[in-house]
Amino acid sequence: MKNIFIPVILLNLMSCHLPGKYADKHPARQTEKQGEISTDFIMGKLSRGIEFYATGNEPGWSLEMNRDNRFQFKTMDGLVFNTPALEAVVDADGNSTRYHATTEAGELDISITSQECIDNMSGDKFTFSVMVSLKHGNDKEFKRHIGCGRWIFDNRLHDIWALESINGKPIIVTEGRSERPYIEFHTDKNQIIGKTSCNNFTGKAEFKGNRIIFSPMESNFKTCPDAAFEVPFRNAMSPGILEYKIDNGRLTLYRNGKQSLVFKKVD
Question: What tens digit of pLDDT does each residue of 31-49 get?
Fold first, then answer.
């Protein structure tokens, strides 16, 4: 029998080593993360609060969006167009999102559609196609710019993590009574899988900047012989937005500014 499992992140255990063959073969250790974007490039944008970026060619241009939905559009000839915070308008099927800005400098219309997009010069794969239409200064008509975009986030999320604590309380697993709980973030597929001791779970999540947006999990639901931490875990986690921080091999998740879960990277 399958139940909808409110949360998403995962469990426990002071030791963070899973069997070598398991860790080596798991997809989170094999798949690529955010194409071929360099870590320095990503971390540089994240440090400036950028969560989404897009780029196009002929002529070259770039688009950045921060957490407040403020955009900056640039072209190779030096044009820079900044917007205030914009409201997202999502189409009926949820596949495309549009933003529109009118300022003293002109008008900017942005359309972001969820579909694979390949940069026609670099060959890099992106998860969104982007169209930017700009009427600037004395322009009488909009000039259209076509390109590709993606959400950016810390690449290190894409791995296997074992839970160390819930709300500051260490998680202890009794050897021989329960399996080591873990969670895997598959950032390339917006997918999460894991185990809460004796229950497997899977679900979807979005990765945007320093936020993870969790959806309800699907899980088998059986009584575990040593699962005192499962109820606190489920209470600590529910669908919604959690912020994260990765430091010294540890992943900390925050809800409403308060530390919720701490994980350690699996060796």
Answer: 444 445 678 888 999 999 9
